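Incident log, support desk, overnight shift.

02:14 A customer reports that sequence design results differ from what the structure should imply. Their input is reproduced verbatim below. On-call engineer (initials T.W.) acknowledged and began investigating.
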C-alpha cells in the first residue's frame, strides 16, 4: 500500500521517533518515496526491540531491507 505523507501526516510520527531516539539513539527516521522508515544503522536487531515500538504505537512493518550503508531499514505505518 502506497502512502504519500504530507507534512501533517509526517508530524503524527514525531512522537514515535522521539521515543525511538530515547531508547535507540543511533536509529533514525528515513523518508523515501513518501514512505516512513526506521533506519537502524545496525546489521542485527533484536525483534523484541521492534516489537516494543510496534505495540506501543500500533504500527505494522510494511517492508524490511538491508544495505551496508543503512544497516536494517524497517518500513512502518500506523494500523
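02:41 Re-run completed on a clean worker. Output:
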Amino acid at each position: 500500500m502506497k502512502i504519500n505523507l504530507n507534512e501533517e501526516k509526517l508530524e503524527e510520527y514525531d512522537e514515535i521517533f522521539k521515543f525511538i531516539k530515547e531508547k535507540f539513539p543511533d536509529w533514525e527516521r528515513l523518508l523515501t518515496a513518501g514512505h516512513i522508515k526506521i533506519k537502524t544503522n545496525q546489521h542485527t536487531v533484536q525483534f523484541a526491540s521492534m516489537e516494543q515500538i510496534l505495540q506501543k504505537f500500533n504500527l505494522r512493518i510494511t517492508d524490511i531491507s538491508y544495505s551496508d550503508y543503512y544497516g536494517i531499514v524497517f518500513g512502518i505505518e500506523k494500523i
